[in-house]
Amino acid sequence: MIQRRLRVVKWSTAPAVGVCTLCSREFKVPMSALRRTVDAQGSLQEQFDRHKCESLDKSNNEHLQ
């Protein structure tokens, strides 16, 4: 089974944008969190952890039908 991962695709002074390697959903760090790298990383990770991959949801629904 392919595992999803968070990949940072844009850096400024800290990680600014990340994407899910499985569904390509994009996550953006709020301006307030860009001041500190640890805050930016935490924001991206939190958004990534909360999301559900659309490709996984679709394949699960198709399998059940």
Key words describing this protein structure:
65 residues, 3-stranded antiparallel sheet, 38% helix, elongated, disordered C terminus
How would you describe the overall organization of this protein?
- Mean pLDDT is 86; it is low at 60-65.
- The protein has helices spanning 37-50, 54-64, and strands spanning 6-11, 15-20, 26-28.
- With 65 residues, the chain is of the alpha+beta class.
- Helices cover 38% and strands 23% of the residues.
- The chain has a 3-stranded antiparallel sheet, with helices on one face.
- It is elongated and about 35 Å long.
- It starts with 5 loop residues before the first strand and ends with a helix.
Strand content: 15-25%
Major β-sheet profile: 3 strands, antiparallel
> How many strands in all?
3
Round the mean pLDDT to the nearest integer and report it. Answer: 86
Q: Give the ordered list of helices and strands.
A: EEEHH
Can you count the helices? 2
Stretches where pLDDT is under 50 for at least 5 consecutive residues are 60-65
Coarse shape: elongated
Radius of gyration of CA atoms, rounded to a whole number: 14 Å
Write out the strand line-up for the largest beta sheet, numbering strands in chain order: 1-2-3
Overall structural class, as computed from helix and strand content, comes to alpha+beta
Percentage of residues assigned to helices: 25-40%
Report, as a whole number of angstroms, the end-to-end distance: 21 Å
